[in-house]
Amino acid sequence: MRSTGILSLAMAALLAGVTAGSALAQPKKGGTLTYTYHPEPTALSTIATTAVPVALISTKIYESLLEYEGAGLTPRPGLAESWTVSPDNLTYTFKLRAGVKWHDGKPFTSEDVKFSIEQIALNYHSRGRTYFGNVEAIETPDAQTVVFRLKAPIPYLLRAFQPSETPMMPKHAFSEQEIAEKKVRQARIMQEPVGTGPFKLKEWRKGSHIILERNADYWKPGKPYLDQVVLRVMPDGAARAIAVEKGEVDLAPTSALPPAEMQRLSKLPHLVASEEGSEGLGPIMWLEVNLRDKPLSDVKVRQAISMAIDRDKLVDVIWYGNGKPARGPIVSGNPNHFDASLPKFEYNPQKAAQMLDEAGYPRGAGGVRFKLTQNFLPYGEEWVRQAEYIRQELGKIGIQVETQSLDMGGWLKRIYTDWDYHFTSNFTHNYSDPTIGVQRAFISSNIRKGASFSNSMDYRNPRLDELLLKAAGMQDGPERKKIWDEVQAILRNDLPVIFLIEIGYTHIWNKRVQGLITNGISMYTNWDSVWIQ
Amino acid sequence: MRRLTTFWLRYRRNRGAVAGALALAVILALALLGPILYPTDPFDMVGRPFSLPFDRFPLGTDVAGRDILAGILNGGRVSLLIGVLASLSATIIGVALGAVAGYYGGRIDDLLMRTTEFFLCIPSFVLAVVLVAIFQPSVVTVTVAIAVVSWPSVARLARGEFIAHRDREYVQGCRAIGMPDWEIILLQIMPNALPPIIVVSSLMVATAILTESGLSFLGLGDPNLVSWGYMIGVARTVLRTAWWMAAIPGVMILLTVLAINLVGEGLNDALNPRLRKR
Questions:
Q1: Where do the domains of chain B lie?
Q2: Rounded to an integer, what distance in angstroms lies between the CA atom of residue A330 and that of residue A180?
Q3: Exposure of A222 by Cβ count < 10 A (0-12 exposed, 13-18 middle, 19+ buried)?
Q4: A110, CA 20 to 30 Å: which among A521, B14, B186, B243?
Q5: Residue A148 backbone phi and psi in degrees, to 5
Q6: CA B35 – CA B41 distance, rounded (Å)
Q7: Edge-to-edge strands of the sheet including A323-325?
Q8: Which residues contact B247 (CB under 8 A, 6 or more apart)?
């Protein structure tokens, strides 16, 4: 006990030193932060769509009840200045901050919270039902108090109050008609936002730029430091890279540049390239495998395919070193749920070929055992290069692969509506809790035609279902961790998808930008303490 | 035999055309024999990406560590195959429609020519992009798409030729002896109308190669095959750090298209000597 006490003291001292070091440079007020991302957002609220460009900009305008600290997303007071959780984990009481105003001057109250969750998040946010499906009632005893009563515990509820996930929307800005006719996504506020955040919309010239200006009435005294946040719209990847290089643009978040350019820019002395600050998203890429037919329904075949792919080479060559080989369904950057004892997946083509022999798929004419068709996620050319690489490697162990290229609409239809595919590359976000990001892809109740990023594989494992449901209703702790460890072991062995790599989101910024990386969702936070030197 | 000799004598007069024919022969030989003599798989990751030409590999490696020489040789096959097949199909479609329209005239002519104009007024590359995007990229769809956007010009030309010939005396003579229409079209007028069409369709091979390259560059080529346009598309993103990666296939396209154009011009000189006295 004593030794841990000393250790934590030492840690605290070390941490204090670190903060003191960075605090030496005094934040400066004023200035403009310009960033670039492609494509241009289609709306200024994640209620319209949770696509990355929308989340990037809307999180500066809208806030949620809590803020988060560190890679593990420790909840901190935000629009709620305090909260309590009942011992049975079924009642959450939030005390709202007094004096918070919407950008139009009206006060922010508990009614807005109730509205934002019951009417907006639950109906329109793509993960609203995962977060709040077990909420029985939201009570508002007074204007500063909100009480959530749950049907069953929601272990990750305190992580749901991120600005991109559960943005607080002003009730008065929606007409009754928009709510009644389910036209929220078409509402004017999606284009002309009214939030509580540190920045408000000044100008949006479509195809060119969006300017956000400082909210002078922001509830945090003295913040934000910046006068403006500007998004420059630049469709060409090379042009974005040059703008960052020349200092016209200060920041290219979440891998906004082509990998080759990122590699080049990361070596320049006036720029910083960092993979930090996205731990809360946890993007993981895999080959989604249709288990309905032979030979892919045979676990030996899937294990052989997994063994034939050199994940290190994928990361190094195709992704220019952005990312890490995956070790299971949960990303290694997730400190609370990842099983750190998991080894890397083995790369051994000889053994893979031997496994196929043993599984009863001998080489036939031309050395071909069987033929498969692969699709790939149509997100850009790295995905094509990866498909080409996989085709080559599988060809060497006797699996002849034909690549079929589809656009986004065609891809979604073929994989999630028609279920007519052999395997395809795909990636999803883990988010802060595996129940949000991992469960949906593997639980058998989510084999739903037409639902995108669901269990398209037709993977049915009663034991896994049981574990996932158990974990969904538990608070984090050693017990729950044990369940997730077993889930990871099962999925690594069954390989309903072939886990490939943890994509690295690289953020590149000019050294004059300070205070950007604050937590595991740094690009989706409000940047109120970012400043320019 | 004599006709061939006079053809060659006329062709030879155009020096550029002779050089073009030579270059084209070399390119054809490379495309046909290259992959056999240099059997590296163009999709294999053979070495470190971005290695320079003449270093470990004759022309270096691309962004994914693949041998560029293997890509050039195999890509040549695909580019030429698609180019030749597409222009051949376009010629057949174009000549068939143009011949019928020109020979019969009247309503058939109106109908066919309005259809042709419909195709002519859409920018051909854009139409090809749309067609390939709808029908999923593969060798077949790319070839068909290029043929579909290329035939109208042949049709116009063939129609003109047939109108010029249909009232000549020899045709009237054929009609007088009761020769059926298809025989007049195929056996009598066609041989006389063919020379300018051959010239146009040989030039069309060059356009078809360029169109295929453009499609592949945009990522609309057959994902299972290497072509020169595809190689440029791959290298595009690293143009500032590794320009040669795009320049090598680019030069190959340039040489091939130039050679075909020179040959086409030579054919024109040889087949239509009176049109081109120089």
A1: 2-276
A2: 39
A3: exposed
A4: A521
A5: -100, 125
A6: 9
A7: A323-325, A497-503, A283-289, A423-429, A370-375, A399-404
A8: none
| Token pair in block for residue A306 | 């997994």
User: What does the alpha-carbon distance between residue A213 and residue A210 come to, in Å, rounded to a whole number?
Assistant: 10
**How confident is the model at residue A67, as a pLDDT?**
96
Q: What is the pLDDT of residues A226-258, one digit of tens each?
A: 999 999 998 777 889 999 999 999 999 988 888
- DSSP letters for A94-143: EEEPTT-B-TTSPBP-HHHHHHIIIIIIHHHSTTHHHHHTTEEEEEEEET
Mean pLDDT of A12-27: 50
**A91: enclosing H helix or E strand:** strand A91-96
Q: How far apart are CA B270 and CA B168, in angstroms?
A: 24
* HEC letters along B133-164: HHHCCCHHHHHHHHHHHHHHHHHHHHHHHHHH
Rounded to 10 degrees, the C-alpha dihedral B46/B51/B54/B58 comes to 30
> Edge-to-edge strand order for the sheet containing A145-150?
A80-85, A91-96, A145-150, A135-142
Per-residue pLDDT, averaged over B40-52, amounts to 85
pLDDT, position A255: 87
Least confident of A82-91, A94-103, A371-380, B44-53: B44-53
- Global pTM reads 0.75
Residues of B in contact with A258 (CB under 8 A): 237
Superfamily name and number for B2-276: MetI-like (1.10.3720.10)
pLDDT of A23: 45
Cα separation, A261 vs A510, whole angstroms: 15
pLDDT digits (tens, 9 = 90+) for B57-71: 889 888 888 999 999
- When scoring A320, A388, A411 by the number of chain B Cβ atoms within 10 A, the one with the most, hence best to mutate, is A388
Q: What span, in angstroms and rounded, lies between the C-alpha atoms of B164 and A59?
A: 71
Contacts of B65 in chain A (CB under 8 A): 317
Predicted confidence at residue A287, as pLDDT, reads 96
Place of tokens 């709306």: A43
Q: What angle do CA B18, B24, B30 make, to 5 degrees?
A: 145
Joined together, the tokens standing for residue A254 give: 């979440």
**In A456-488, which positions are buried (b, 16+ CB within 10 angstroms) versus exposed (e)?**
bbebebeebbebbeebbebebeeebeebbbebb
Chain-centre distance for alpha carbon A112: 26
For the stretch B177-236, pLDDT in tens is: 999 999 999 888 988 888 889 888 888 998 999 999 899 888 788 888 999 989 998 888
Q: What is the pLDDT of residue A18?
A: 42
CA A260, CA A267: separation in Å to the nearest integer?
12
From B253, B267, B266, B259, select the one nearest B82 (Cα to Cα).
B253
Contact in structure between A515 and A11 (CB atoms under 8 Å):
no
For chain A, the residue count is 533
Q: Which helix (H) or strand (E) holds A500?
A: strand A497-503
pLDDT at B1: 64
Record: contact A317-B233, CB cut-off 8 A = no
Burial bucket for residue A111 (CB in 10 Å: 0-12, 13-18, 19+): middle
- Looking at CA atoms only, how far is residue A316 from chain B in angstroms? 10
Residues of A in contact with B234 (CB under 8 A): 381, 385
B-chain residue closest to A310, CA distance? B45
